Amino acid sequence: MSTWLSRRAVLAGLGAGVSACVLPSAARAAAAGFRPLKAALATADLLGSAKPDGARETAVWAYDGSVPGPLLRARTGERLRVRFENALEQESSVHWHGIRIDNAMDGVPGMTQQPVPPGGAFDYDFALAHPGTYWYHPHIRSAEQVARGLHGVLIVDETEPPQVDRDVLLVIDDWRLAPDGQLDAASFGNLHDAAHGGRLGNWMTVNGTSQPEIGLRAGERVRLRLVNVANARIFELDAAPLGAWVAALDGHGLNRSVPATDPVLLGPGQRADLFFDMPAGADLTLDDVSTGERIVAARFPVQGQTGDLPPRPPLEALALPRFAPEPDLASARRIELLMQGGAMGGLASAKLDGEELALRDLAQKGFVWAFNGNVGHMHDRLFEARRGETMAIEFVNDTSWPHAMHLHGHHFKVLTRDGKPAPDAGFRDTVLTGPQQRVGVAFVADNPGDWMLHCHMLEHQGAGMTASFRVA
Ligand code: C2O
Ligand code: CU
Asked: 95 CB under 6 A from ligand 1?
């Protein structure tokens, strides 16, 4: 297999200055009025200097013509008002991943709104009650639309953010490119990918380019926001050489900081907020080590002089607060979610629209996964919770593949792995469950409406790993 993602040589020496990924506070989205956000065809220079001779930029689908889409930014307590315009040739929507949002604004066609037709528009208008690093993407034909380039980041600033000198956003993606530098579109909908680890790419980008260089002054305190927008790839980002501390996962504070001694595991949809101080005299890199090789994701060369930097409290003292309500385990209702199917999964049959079908027949309809014996459909409701009820869900991964289980409208607390306590794994909106692993989570179902619970490996989602629940 000759994936560029595993070939350091091809990646070496690439990179362009991307000061655009360093966020001045002036870039905050205006609080008043609707900000337009348009999905349309565009091109992106994903390959940079690695473009084959005579190749054009990659044709993509993009928000406001850029990949990733524009950074949307506001303060906790403000409202976000976005007028989404669909200039694509197919239906779309915008889902605000991870936000504890008003249900009507969740962007799930067929559940919280009608799909936005080609040429149509939809006004999203919601309160940002909690701070954190979030992202947005379509929630219809997600496997194709997200992979074609439709994704962007939403930052909700804390009321009193920790003092930093730089706020650096890294949007990490992988693309499946054909030799001519264009998207390998023939592989959209490929059932073999869907039954395995999803549609993995062969070209990694960070902020839409390869190995961006972000110059930092020695002594600067840096907040690093990592966002995995890839369809299926699990990145492992080695932040130990930066001396970084992790303060939030999936936008939600840990209440303390933990040293990033092990690589930061980032499944599809997941985010992490890290802090580090740029040392003197050493250029640093953030590397992905998930392929078994070290691939530079971003470079941080030392630039300019140290001088007038204000003193900062020690990194270990940095804490981003928790905000999700603490689940009451004593009164919790317990639900088991058995994840079944896929290649080497041994699933013989499952129910689709009430009819038990053999795996072969399901596969003909594009389905190869099931939850609790049901091929996931948006309207297979897993449970209906009373408002404020604590739900404890045990994800039982009876498959040979990892899955990134994502909950809409809430953050859950990760409690156990294989029955053993997972101390301080934090509140998240997406959790990785390894093959044959059990992961126990719990959350207070306090956000009324119909919500989704699905695998964020988008090909798995499309091929049956989808469920929903209602909070009354
Ligand atoms: Cu990020 Cu249901 O999705
Ligand atoms: Cu999955």
From this structure: yes
For residues 16 and 19, give the distance between their C-alpha atoms in angstroms, rounded to a whole number.
Answer: 9
Kindly tell me if the per-residue pLDDT of 49 is higher than 70: yes
Torsion on CA atoms 371, 373, 375, 379, rounded to nearest 10: -70
Name the domain count of the chain. 3
Q: Are residues 50 and 145 in the same domain?
A: yes
Q: What is the pLDDT of residues 281-311, one digit of tens each?
A: 889 999 999 999 999 999 999 987 766 788 8
Ligand 1 pocket, residue 196 CB under 6 Å: no
Is pTM beyond 0.85 here? Answer: yes
CATH for 365: 2.60.40.420
Question: Ligand 2 being an ion, which residues bring their Cβ within 5 A of it?
Answer: 403, 455, 457, 460
End of a domain among 125, 157, 189?
157
**Three-state DSSP class for 34?**
coil
Helix (H) or strand (E) holding 462, with range, is helix 458-462
Select from 266, 286, 317 the last residue of a domain. 317
Closest ligand to 430 CA? Answer: 1
Beta-strand ranges (E) seen in 190-348 are 203-206, 221-228, 235-238, 245-249, 252-259, 264-266, 271-277, 284-288, 295-300, 333-341
